[in-house]
Specification:
Helix content is about 45%, strand content about 15%. By secondary structure, it is α/β, with parallel strands linked by helices. A seven-stranded parallel β-sheet has the order 3-2-1-4-5-6-7, with helices on both faces. Helix 2 links the parallel strand 2 and strand 3. The longest helix has 29 residues. The radius of gyration is 18 Å and the shape is globular. InterPro entries: NAD(P)-bd_dom_sf (IPR036291), SDR (IPR050259), SDR_fam (IPR002347). Belongs to the short-chain dehydrogenases/reductases (SDR) family. It holds the Pfam family adh_short_C2.
Length: about 260
């Protein structure tokens, strides 16, 4: 399918690997020129080079912490202050127990997983509205629909972003700007490895056993693949997605047994 976005310009955050890279790859395949961001310069530059060579698009890597003002300023400068497509993404806060989290822990999580996305939308969406076309995809988490007890910091921050998008997306839709959220379940990424390692340590089992047990809770009996996630992201950025507004699209292999 031709997504109709060849020649558009996009920003993908946390794109050196994992779900962010999956999104960048899919957008590049559709012909989108990219600015990609992550904190680690070496991995990011390698990713940019590989994507550009494979898909024949322009890929500009900006190594910076997108959760900081300076990091966002560097990325926005590389974009020249405007983009047609925005994919927000940032690593999730660590797991833990509700009694252990301080106010600073919550502020840090909200800064990274809610306010960073809001700041990027506030910077780029007005220009999309002026031009009459834009797409925003926020990578959040399945925990928005089915909260995960040990990920309370993530639950809190991402639910806040979901509430913001619910209102904002309807306000910008008349101007040709479509905003949605993608809610990943467990995918084969470093984040999954980290969570599995935590379970393995706490339960005194091997990491392979921890993964096998988690896979058994997913109807597909496997973790998701970043490339499949990326394909869904690219579709939500397509011309054909114009009528999908303010939705929370769940990609979890059926793990969340919910009907609405």
């Amino acid at each position: 399918m031709d997504l109709g976005i060849r020649g558009k310009r996009g920003l993908v955050c946390a794109a050196s690997k994992g779900l962010g890279r999956g999104c960048a790859e899919a957008l590049a395949e559709a012909g989108v020129d990219l600015v990609i961001n992550a904190r680690g310069a070496e991995a990011l530059e390698r990713t940019a080079r590989e994507i550009a060579e494979k898909h024949g698009v322009s890929v500009t890597p900006i190594a910076a912490d997108i959760t900081t003002q300076d990091g966002r300023a560097a990325v926005l400068e590389a974009l020249g202050g405007q983009a047609d497509i925005l994919v927000t993404n940032a690593g999730g806060p660590p797991p833990g127990t509700w009694t252990d989290w301080s106010r600073e822990d919550f502020i840090k999580a909200i800064d990274a997983n809610m306010l960073t996305a809001v700041a990027l939308m506030q910077a780029l969406v007005p220009g999309m509205m002026e031009r009459g076309w834009g797409r925003v995809v926020n990578i959040t988490s399945q925990s928005v629909r089915t909260p995960i007890a040990i990920l309370g910091l993530s639950n809190t921050a991402r639910a806040g972003l979901t509430g913001f998008v619910a209102g904002m997306s309807r306000q910008v839709a008349p101007h040709g700007v479509v905003v949605n959220n993608l809610l990943p379940g467990i995918h084969a990424t470093d984040r999954a490895d980290s969570l599995d390692a935590g379970v393995a340590k706490s339960e005194g089992i091997g990491i392979d056993e921890a993964r096998r047990r988690r896979e058994a809770t997913i109807p597909t009996r496997s973790y998701g693949r970043p490339e499949d996630f990326g394909a869904t992201c690219a579709f939500l950025c397509s011309q054909q997605a114009r009528f999908i507004v303010g939705q929370n699209v769940l990609l979890d292999g059926g793990a969340s047994n919910i009907t609405i």
